[in-house]
């Protein structure tokens, strides 16, 4: 049987390469400051009888990143479709990390969420409700400290289990009704153009990326002139309705989701705003 491809995906400096080394016994260079990884490194590991091809994907902040450092990882997610995404989060900075997560959810690919840097989290007195996070994100959550090689076996277990399990139903983020209607129309157009190849999740994701103005996806569809014209029409209708471009509308909805989720799952000891009450003078 062919190996199961597992991609480590996260923001730069979330600890992907450290995890990759701990998982595979490799000795790749770890960034002390910024972006050491510039190309993809992969290694095979067999765990509980499952051969996993683990890929260290260079970090990026958004699936529509255009900077050269971020494009490698971004293009990988668009083009390669790994069997499993391991979304590596800097658990000490969940506010930054969850924005990418909202976009990875939309790829529909099976995901494992890793809360790395748990040593920092404990030191800062932050508590994270992992059970709630797991159910909200529709993925197992594994806590790790790559630096001390903690949680590595649990992560390998989660990968092997997911490789053997039937895929779970993908989740979707719900946008406002104008956006949803536009997504729906583009999705139908796409499904007509590619009737065989596109699953509903995939066509929804492509529709969202096109409405967002993603260069890569638009270039891929550039020979479908009518579709490209439709997208422009949808974008200007949305701009008219909302006074905001479509990319910002999508980004605001994703931030709203991740901020709302964060309020539910994270508590900081001694946080002056936690349990704050007004009393009568
Ligand atoms: P990448 O950019 O996601 O590949 O991140 P790296 O693996 O290069 O790690 C970035 C920095 O974070 C390095 O200095 C690592 O030593 C450090 N690091 C990685 N994992 C942990 C962890 O669990 N705890 C702490 N405290 N530091 C970590
Ligand atoms: Mg790296």
From TrEMBL:
<feature type="binding site">
    <location>
        <position position="24"/>
    </location>
    <ligand>
        <name>Mg(2+) 2</name>
    </ligand>
</feature>
<comment type="function">
    <text>Probable transporter of a GTP-driven Fe(2+) uptake system.</text>
</comment>
<feature type="binding site">
    <location>
        <position position="21"/>
    </location>
    <ligand>
        <name>Mg(2+) 1</name>
    </ligand>
</feature>
<feature type="binding site">
    <location>
        <begin position="10"/>
        <end position="17"/>
    </location>
    <ligand>
        <name>GTP</name>
    </ligand>
</feature>
<feature type="domain" description="FeoB-type G">
    <location>
        <begin position="3"/>
        <end position="165"/>
    </location>
</feature>
<protein>
    <recommendedName>
        <fullName>Ferrous iron transport protein B</fullName>
    </recommendedName>
</protein>
<feature type="binding site">
    <location>
        <begin position="116"/>
        <end position="119"/>
    </location>
    <ligand>
        <name>GTP</name>
    </ligand>
</feature>
<feature type="binding site">
    <location>
        <position position="22"/>
    </location>
    <ligand>
        <name>Mg(2+) 2</name>
    </ligand>
</feature>
<comment type="similarity">
    <text>Belongs to the TRAFAC class TrmE-Era-EngA-EngB-Septin-like GTPase superfamily. FeoB GTPase (TC 9.A.8) family.</text>
</comment>
<feature type="binding site">
    <location>
        <begin position="56"/>
        <end position="59"/>
    </location>
    <ligand>
        <name>GTP</name>
    </ligand>
</feature>
<feature type="binding site">
    <location>
        <position position="25"/>
    </location>
    <ligand>
        <name>Mg(2+) 2</name>
    </ligand>
</feature>
């Amino acid at each position: 049987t062919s190996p199961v491809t597992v991609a480590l995906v996260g923001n730069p400096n979330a600890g992907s390469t450290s995890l990759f080394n701990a998982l595979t016994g490799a000795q790749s260079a770890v960034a002390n400051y910024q972006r050491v990884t510039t190309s993809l490194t992969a290694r095979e590991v067999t765990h509980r009888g499952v051969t996993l091809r683990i890929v260290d994907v260079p970090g990026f902040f958004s699936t529509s990143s255009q900077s050269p450092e971020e494009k490698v990882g971004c293009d990988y997610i668009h083009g390669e479709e790994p069997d499993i995404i391991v979304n590596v989060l800097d658990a000490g900075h969940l506010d930054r990390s969850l924005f990418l997560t909202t976009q990875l959810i939309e790829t529909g690919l099976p995901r494992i969420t890793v809360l790395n840097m748990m040593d920092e989290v404990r030191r800062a007195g932050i508590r994270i409700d992992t059970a709630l996070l797991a159910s909200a994100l529709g993925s197992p959550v594994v806590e790790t400290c790559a630096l001390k090689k903690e949680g590595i076996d649990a992560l390998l277990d989660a990968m092997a289990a997911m490789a053997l399990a039937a895929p779970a139903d993908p989740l979707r983020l719900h946008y406002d009704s104008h956006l949803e209607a536009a997504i729906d129309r583009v999705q139908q157009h796409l499904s007509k153009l590619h009737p065989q190849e596109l699953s509903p999740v995939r066509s929804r994701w492509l529709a969202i990326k096109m409405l967002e103005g993603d260069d890569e996806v638009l270039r891929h569809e550039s020979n479908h002139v009518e579709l490209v014209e439709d997208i422009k029409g949808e974008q200007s209708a949305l701009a008219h309705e909302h006074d905001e471009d479509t990319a910002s509308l999508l980004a605001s909805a994703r931030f709203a989701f991740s901020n709302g989720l964060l309020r539910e799952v994270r508590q900081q000891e001694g946080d002056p705003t936690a349990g704050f009450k007004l009393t009568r003078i």
